Structure formats: structure tokens, C-alpha cells
Amino acid sequence: MRSVKVSETPPMKNPHGVDARKLLDAEEAQVIHIELKPGEALVRHITPVDVFFYVLEGTGTVEIGDETARVGADTLVESPAGIPHRWVNDGDGPFRVLVAKTPRPVKPTVILDD
Q1: Residue 34: which H helix or E strand, with range?
Q2: 7 occurs within a structural domain
Q3: Measuring CA to CA, which of 7, 56, 94, 99 is 20 to 30 A from 75?
């Protein structure tokens, strides 16, 4: 059995400049824990594989394509491959999201200029 604690996983360098920690990096999937502080946001980007997000804590806004929704803890959001998306912490506390990419991407994420 493999067990991973978020608090013991070092943050990874990322183009968003936020706290992101890779918890799993297998051929079948990649799982990343993201914590956004109030006012922080991900840069709009396109992931080459399907992604689902599970909100662990807080409230924020997710944008996928032309759709925008305000979501909170215990919410699962699906994002198909090739669709621009981003997260925004417009709340007043931490916003923690678990990101699962399936399968693990072999092509790079495309960062969009807004």
C-alpha cells in the first residue's frame, strides 16, 4: 500500500504560481492537490486529457469553456479534454481542490493569454 500526505508532499513548480502538490503520477492517472488563497486564481489553460475536480474545502468559481459556476466543498466538476478552464478563489478562506487527469497527460498543458 502507498499512502501520501498532502502536508508531506513538496509543492511543484507550475505556471499558475500557486500551491500545487502532485500526489499521484501513474500512466493511468495524475492527481494534484491545489490550494488557492483568497484572491488567487489559475491561469486559463487547456489540458490535453479529461479532468475532474473535487472541491475539498472552501468556495470558489470554476470556468470551463463558456460556463461559469460557483461551487463549494463536496462538489465534483468534470472538464473534458481540450476545453479552456480555470479556478478562482473569490471567497475569504482557503479553497482546496483535488485534480484528477485521466490518463496522465503526455502532451503539455496550453497556457492561454487572456
Answers
A1: strand 30-36
A2: no
A3: 7
